[in-house]
Write a structure and sequence with these properties.
single chain, mainly beta
Length: 66
């Protein structure tokens, strides 16, 4: 099966809702993706904001990049 669809305009819904999420932990940084679900809310995976390798440390800073 071949999917040859092309996004004609990435600046319209739903494509404009996908964002990069930068995270800052005490001793590391991370990068993930998310989707805007409200004016001040981004839905992302738990492993983007919690560092299990460091005892379930929660990100100290999140930056939403559109």
């Amino acid at each position: 099966m071949n999917d040859d669809r092309i996004v004609q305009n990435p600046n319209v819904n739903p494509f404009d809702s996908v964002v990069a999420v930068d995270t800052r932990f005490n001793h590391s940084i991370g990068l993930g993706s998310g989707i805007v679900i409200g004016p001040s809310h981004v839905l992302t995976a738990g492993h983007v904001v919690v560092d299990k390798a460091r005892g379930n440390q929660v990100a100290q800073k999140l930056t939403n990049k559109r």
